[in-house]
Write a structure and sequence with these properties.
Elements: H1 2-26, H2 32-35, E1 40-44, H3 49-60, E2 64-69, E3 83-87, H4 93-103, E4 108-111, H5 126-153, E5 159-163, H6 176-196, E6 202-208, H7 214-219, H8 223-230, H9 241-252, E7 263-266
Parallel strand pairs: 1-2, 1-4, 2-3, 4-5, 5-6, 6-7
Helix pairs in contact: 3-9, 4-5, 5-6
Subunit structure: Homotetramer.
InterPro entries: L-xylulose/Carbonyl_redctase, NAD(P)-bd_dom_sf, Sc_DH/Rdtase_CS, SDR_fam
Keywords: NADP, Oxidoreductase
Length: 275
């Protein structure tokens, strides 16, 4: 008798568990696009390349974008769009912090601003080294400090996305300062994920291969330079700005609420880091 009661109880519990799981699986989730409506985001380096595309994508999702760049004239400007243009040099420690703190609470930050000084190792200059590290690494820290402080003050479960690179882990010639800055950024992101996670703020990297922005097309137009890299990419092509924007939008959205401290490689390569 007791065995029958035990079996009945177990069967009942199993049905309850499966019913709960089934409801969870079947539960409708709002579309990713709906998440962005009425929310605010900061994009640094919004005046060109990937930053301009990411800004445009967020505006298209009905979000308000604080577009940051060194040159106000290069920043997007279209009537009717929810955008605030802000001029600041992300490599400037104090200005970056003050300007972003003044923005107030936002739901996400995209640290896209970056520079690259192409110099052989033996000819690397102090200016090239300092400018690259100041923008690509130190600037990310300072911008994120201000944005995170504002998120925490309003208890916003936000997302910070840092644009790194596959050459954060694979070196190529003439890029010592750039490789160093992106390698540092990987560790910055991991540390931010640990320390900001308890506040409900997620921090992740997007690590693209060569991206065919306007400047990227010029820099990688020589087949002798681009060919060996292309040969290592099974998809047979370099990335375009929208490939990177897709990854950024995903990591900003509530479709990635359990992803924290990740390097998301946008390189078409499932085996080794191509570039």
């Amino acid at each position: 008798m007791f065995r029958s009661i035990y079996k009945l109880s177990t069967h009942f519990n199993n049905r309850c568990v499966m019913g709960t799981l089934s409801r969870g699986i079947a539960e409708k989730h709002p579309s990713m696009e709906n998440y962005f409506k009425g929310k605010s985001f900061i994009v640094t380096g919004a005046g060109a390349g990937m930053g301009k595309v990411i800004t445009g994508r967020l505006l298209g999702l009905d979000a308000h974008v604080f577009a940051i760049g060194r040159d106000i004239e290069s920043l997007p400007c279209k009537a009717g769009q929810k955008m605030t243009r802000i001029t600041v040099d992300i490599g400037d420690w104090e200005s970056t912090y003050c300007k972003i703190l003044e923005i107030g609470p936002v739901h996400g930050l995209v640290n896209n601003a970056g520079v690259a000084h192409i110099e052989p190792f033996l000819e690397t200059t102090q200016h090239g080294w300092d400018d690259t590290l100041n923008v690509n690494s130190r600037g990310v820290v300072r911008a994120s400090q201000a944005a995170a402080k504002n998120m925490i003050s309003e208890k916003i479960l936000g997302s910070i996305v840092n644009v790194s690179s596959t050459i954060s882990e694979r070196a190529i010639p003439d890029h010592v300062s750039y490789c160093a800055s992106k390698g540092a950024l990987n560790q910055i992101t991991r540390t931010m994920a640990i320390e900001l996670g308890p506040h409900g703020i997620r921090t992740n990297n997007v690590n693209p291969t060569v991206v065919l922005t306007k400047m990227g097309k010029i820099a990688w137009s020589d087949p002798k330079k681009s060919g060996p890299i292309m040969d290592r990419i099974p998809l047979g092509r370099f990335a375009v700005p929208n490939d990177v924007a897709n990854a950024v939008i995903f990591l900003l959205s509530d479709y990635s609420t359990m992803i924290n401290g990740l390097n998301l490689y946008v390189d078409g390569d499932p085996t080794i880091k191509s570039v």
